[in-house]
Every structure is written in C-alpha cells, then in structure tokens.
Write a structure and sequence with these properties.
This protein has 13 helices and twelve strands. By secondary structure, the protein is an alpha/beta fold. It is globular. It has two domains: about 240 residues, P-loop containing nucleotide triphosphate hydrolases (Rossmann fold), CATH 3.40.50; about 120 residues, no CATH class. Strands 6-7-8-3-9-10-12-11 form an eight-stranded mixed β-sheet, with helices on both faces. Strands 2-1-4-5 form a four-stranded antiparallel β-sheet, with helices on one face. Helix 5 crosses helix 6, helix 5 runs parallel beside helix 7 and helix 7 packs parallel to helix 8. About 30% of the residues lie in helices and about 20% in strands. Bound molecules: iron/sulfur cluster. The site of iron/sulfur cluster has 13 residues, from loops. Iron/sulfur cluster binds next to loops.
Length: about 375
C-alpha cells in the first residue's frame, strides 16, 4: 500500500505518535527526563530547544536508534519501546529520520541510486531491478532531483542536493511519521529555505506526520502546527504555533523568541533580545527546582526549591511558577520588564529589589 493510501485509512484525529513519560539516561547524564507528547495524523510538531536540551535524543528514541531507559513510545497505537530486532524492521518502515548532516548520513561509497533504494532492500520488498530503478527515479523526482543523479556519488552533489537525497531515502519506506532532526542547520543559508519549503510541500501532499527538531524557533513559523519547547531534558511549554508566537508564557520560550523580529514596529521598539548568558547547565547535575532558574531573569526563591509542574494555561501547557492561571505573568522581552513586574499572590515574592533595567538579585540555590 502506498503512503498516501495508508495515511488516508487513518481517522482524522488518529494519534500517530505518543510519548509517555519518556526517560533516557546515559549513566549519570539525564538527557531526557519525563517527556510526554502526542502527534496526530498529518500534524507537524516542532520540538525546539538549545543544543543540550535533549530534543535530538527524543528523536533517536522514537526511531529506536536508542532504547529508552523508561517510559513508552507508541506509534499508531503500538508500543515500540522495547521492540525485538525482527520487529524493528516494520517499525523502521513506519518511521523515518532525516539527520542534520547529509554528508555524514549518506554512505560515500554508494551511488545515490543505491542509497535511495536501500530502504526497499532492507525491507525485503521483492522488486525487480527495473521496478526498483523506477521507484528511485520517482523518489528523486519527488524531491526535485533528476534521475541522472542516481548515477553519481554523494560527494559530487551540493549540500542542498545531498539533503534532498536524504529526504528521498527517508520517504522511500512510505513512513507515516518523519523525524526531521535539524534538517537545514548544516546547509548554507541560501538553500535552507528551499529545503524547508520542500519539506512543507511534501508533508502537505503526502500527509505524513512530522516531528521537526530544531534550535531555531523562527524556522518553524511557517511549518509547524504545534510547538513543544524543551529545556535540559524536560518540556517547559507546548501549544499551537499561533498561541506560542502570539503569547509565549514561559520565560525560556520568550527568550528564544526574542531574537525574531515582530511585524508591529511599536511593539518591536518595546522589545529586547534576551541574552541568556551562561551555557545550558550539565545534564549530569541539573539545577534544583525549575531547571531554568540559573538563567531565568525573573527567578524567585520558590523556583530554586520547587519543581514547577506542566499545567494547562489558556491555550498552552506551561511549567512555570510565575505564570498565573489566567495566563498573566512576566514577559522577559519587554524592556525593563523583569524588574518592573510584580508577582501578585506569591507568598515568597520576587527578589525585585533592583533598579529598573538592572538584573534582579539571584535567588539562593538550595543546599538541602
Ligand atoms: Fe523562571 Fe521560575 Fe518560571 Fe522557572 S519557574 S521559568 S525559574 S520564573
């Protein structure tokens, strides 16, 4: 059955991917710590965060390049968390991945035609040589490449062409879910947009669900239906693209978005780019309470002492003590905002004893 036919058989609201309390530890390194999310048929979800947030590890657990420490990965309702070697073959037909670096993910000694045909061979599809060549030509055509590219080696192609070959190979197995792991970040800026547009066109035409992993929130604005933001192994905010862009609630999401220009010039002038300073802390020894507290411009003592739970706030799901149930809270992008904002109703209060425009006093890390 073709991808289109298989996907059309799914109900409109079918859950294609479900992660339940996914945990991936590498010894003492807590790379992913309790991530739960759902992706429905034909949806594009962007999984966003800095390098070290654990987002690529989530992608590798889904395609089962890694076996999760605990939790569950379900694809089309089937639990694939601990599949046997034999069952993995069917799983890899349903779920494909496009990696960041096409040069590293394509075998340099194989002709492009053989690279693209590899999923057909691995899945034991008994196609004749002629049928296989026809499928490869069709696959290359789908990503805007001529069939003669099949007779070249990957190093003879440009970076953008190589990434198109990677996408053609990923779609060859007719997946219902595509994991795109930073698919444009290793490419020249001049070709990034064309590869993103290609992915968007293919997703719309074929209808596969897509988990788009990226550190760049502005890259997902025209592609994603849903956005999930990760920080140090955990989800901190999730919502629709519209709600995240119009009203991000979590200070980390606001900081990531602060670099993106706003169309309204008045609003733009009142905004500042938030520099988070220090690198993301080590996943071997994550900060207590809210893991973002060591870099958060509006952190209070409660953030050090107490883990904020993910909860529904308006259209988004947010993990932050200072976001109120009605969605109000600090906006670290507003000039002078953190030092002017008063957290009504908080017993411990913010350490906002600094002059406007300066940094608030850092809360003390719990020693207990
Ligand atoms: Fe910042 Fe505290 Fe909210 Fe964490 S819980 S994002 S430290 S205000």
């Amino acid at each position: 059955m073709s991808t289109e036919a298989a996907i059309k058989d799914l109900p409109d609201d079918a859950v294609v991917l479900e992660l339940e309390d996914l945990v991936m530890h590498f010894g003492p390194v807590r790379a992913v710590d309790g991530v739960s999310l759902r992706l429905r048929r034909g949806q594009v979800m962007a999984l966003v965060g800095e390098s070290g947030s654990g987002k690529s590890t989530v992608g590798r657990c889904i395609v089962r390049l890694l076996e999760p420490t605990s939790g569950h990965v379900r694809i089309d309702g089937t639990d694939v968390t601990h599949l046997s070697r034999a069952a993995l073959r069917e799983h890899r037909r349903q779920v494909s991945i496009v990696f960041q670096d096409p040069a590293g993910s394509l075998n340099p000694r194989m002709l492009v035609g053989d690279v693209v045909a590899e999923p057909l061979r691995l899945q034991g599809r008994g196609l004749s040589r002629r049928d296989r060549q026809a499928r490869v030509a069709e696959g290359l055509g789908r990503v805007g490449l001529r069939d003669e590219v099949a007779r070249r080696y990957p190093h003879e192609l440009s970076g953008g062409q190589r990434q198109r070959v990677s996408i053609a190979r990923a779609l060859m197995s007719d997946p219902t879910l595509l994991i795109a792991d930073e698919p444009t970040s290793a490419l020249d800026v001049s070709v990034q947009a064309s590869v993103l547009n290609l992915l968007a066109d293919l997703q719309r035409d074929i209808g596969f669900a897509c988990l788009f992993i990226t550190h760049d929130l502005s890259a997902v604005e025209y592609l994603a239906d849903e956005i999930a933001v990760m920080y140090l192994g955990q989800l901190v905010e999730q919502g629709t693209r519209e709600s995240i862009f119009a009203r991000p609630s979590h200070p980390y999401t606001q900081a990531l978005l602060s670099a993106a220009p706003v169309p309204d010039p008045v609003q733009q002038r009142s905004r500042r780019a938030v520099l988070l300073g220090d690198d993301i802390p080590s996943a071997m020894d994550p900060p207590s309470g809210c893991r973002f507290h060591t870099r958060c411009p509006v952190a209070v003592q409660r953030c050090v002492d107490e883990v904020p739970l993910l909860r529904r706030v308006g259209a988004n799901t947010v993990a932050c003590h200072l976001v109120q149930d009605d969605g109000s809270g600090p906006d670290v992008r507003v000039l002078g905002g953190p030092s002017r904002w008063t957290p009504a109703g908080l017993e411990d209060g913010v350490t906002q004893d600094t002059a406007p425009g300066t940094s608030p006093t850092r809360p003390q890390r719990s020693t207990g």
